[in-house]
Amino acid sequence: MKDKSLASAYYAVGVLTVAYVLSFIDRTILALLVAPIRADLGISDTQLSLLHGLAFAIFYTTLGIPIALLADRLNRRNIMALGIAVWSLATAVCGLARSFGQLFLARVAVGVGEAALSPAAYSMIADLFPRERLGRALGLYNVGAFAGAGLAFLIGGAVIAAVAQAGAVELPLIGEVRSWQLVFFIVGLPGLIVAVWVMTLTEPVRLATSAAAADDGMLRRLADCAGHMRSHWRAYTTHLVGFTLIGLVFNATLAWMPTHLIRNHSLGTADAAFWIGLALLVMGSSGVLAGGLLTDRLDSRGAGDGAMKVGLLSACLTLPLVAACTLLPSGAATLWLYAGLVFATTLPFGAAAAAIQIITPAGMRATASAIYLFLLNLVGLGAGPTLVAMGTDFLFGDDLAVGKSMALVGILAALPAIGLFFWGLPHYRNLAAASR
């Protein structure tokens, strides 16, 4: 790969990573606003979890596939820029909500916009880099998710602390807004600048896409992708379900760990935000980068199953860590072990993104990525936080039992993930070898 084209490729990854950072700030900031939103809107933990998970995930996942079908044929840069503008405005609109229903609809719109980013970004990056560099490139892009989540807590905690002193604020044309509503304006509107920045990227030439395929209808292309996955169902089942279960643990604990620290370890909102943000920024970013590099290193030895081995390692580390960090009585121990859990659960996501590109034909990559993200987000993001909240509200019937709920959900996800990766290793290895 020539130096100039390599520099251009990494520039594109850098811009897309910034966009991904922004997307996670906008989707994650809600986790810090549990108490004031519950107080103002009079809602339960379960309703709050629906705002954090289902409201965002339902259209993020369902629209991801048709948008990805468009991204497999149309200009990916333009699709991503439009999506960034939509979710940024929708995040700001969250600050106008006066009821649970209004906030739910605004969160739906955030999910609609964010659905445009990752499938198109995965496909573009796969066309910018050779296979031997794909793991680290997609690992770098996926740093955006965890750096964004970390910055959401670090910046969000500081913003919340600053605006909380002001109480209600009078805004021109809008009127009086609460401090938690003002936070949505502050984190949402800068995304419009990033949308313009994405338009500076050059759409790369697609690799190995035939003219005949380009003329196929969307349903035909989806059917072709589904047929390819069905023909190799063992490899794809291992990938899709295994990484989704790890994602469920990550999202469930991310959504409720701040509340656990506040309710059970007497941390203030700003302190909980700082320590969790630091863990996400440092351990999340290093985890996803380490997973991408480890995937490339293992694959360089010729086995071709590096991504699945990274997934297995992640699941084996996740099982003890999720139990320990949610059940120990010490706040300091909880924070240290949560940092380890963040590393363990983020380790496979650069690997997972690379793996779906490696075993999928070029003209189907964005669509296959969207199917992967559909499951990852519908189950991991949509169901994970809600399962924890339902355990707290209905199984234990105690707000202080949120740690027990996280432990139960985490263990029940990590155990089958371990078994699935063991079972699927040879099937993925064979398909990866055939795809060379």
What would you note in describing this structure?
There is one protein chain. Helix content is 80%, strand content 1%. Helix 1 runs antiparallel to helix 11. The protein is globular and about 60 Å long. A two-stranded antiparallel sheet has the order 1-2. A hairpin with a 3-residue loop joins strand 1 and strand 2. It is built from 20 helices and two strands. About 2% of the residues have low confidence. The protein is mainly α. The two termini are 18 Å apart. The protein has a single domain, classed as Up-down Bundle (Growth Hormone, Chain: A), CATH 1.20.1250.20.
* CATH class placement: Mainly Alpha
The helical percent reads over 70%
Give unreliable regions as ranges: 209-215
Assigned CATH architecture: Up-down Bundle
Number of domains: 1
Radius of gyration: 21 Å
Mean pLDDT: 86
Largest sheet: 2 strands, antiparallel
Q: Which range does the strand content fall in?
A: under 5%
Main sheet strand line-up: 1-2
Question: Based on helices, strands and strand pairing, what is the structural class?
Answer: mainly alpha
What's the SSE pattern? HHHHHHHHHEEHHHHHHHHHHH
CATH topological fold name: Growth Hormone, Chain: A
Number of helical runs?
20
Shape: globular
At the fourth level of CATH, the homologous superfamily is MFS general substrate transporter like domains
